[in-house]
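The instructor's notes for this session suggest beginning with a concrete chain rather than abstract definitions. Hand out the sequence below and ask the class to guess, before any prediction is shown, which regions might be ordered.
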Amino acid sequence: MKLIKIAALCLPLALAPIGSTASAQGMPPEQIKQILDLTKANWVSFRDWQGQELIYFTHLESWKCGIEYVFYGLNDDPIEQEWQLEACDPDNQNVVLKDKPYLELPLGSAQSISVQLIFKDGTKSAVERFEYKSQ
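After discussion, reveal the predicted structure:
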């Protein structure tokens, strides 16, 4: 019975055409949205490095094929700034090649960042707020 379940899960993957126009990791956009919702605690991360505060967008860059726009606001600022995602490469959809997938700020300048995503289908995520924790 277990073998049948595994085969049922793998069969659609085996039958999918190579080079199809599937979304990130071969997933439809609604699944990408679900993954981003489940992993929202990882959308951004903070790091102190050589006298600077870095805010990484690496997780969002890796799911860029399912995201149209990323907007953010530092501290209590409005969510008006756009993080420019790399273009989606259909052959390497989750690869992050951006030289600097992070913001560089003076140390101590950001106590929080609020982020909102706009997905490829035009829907918006809830605004998520991430608090800086001293390292």
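Then share the key points. The helical segments are 2-15, 29-38, 58-62. The chain is about 20% helix and 30% strand.
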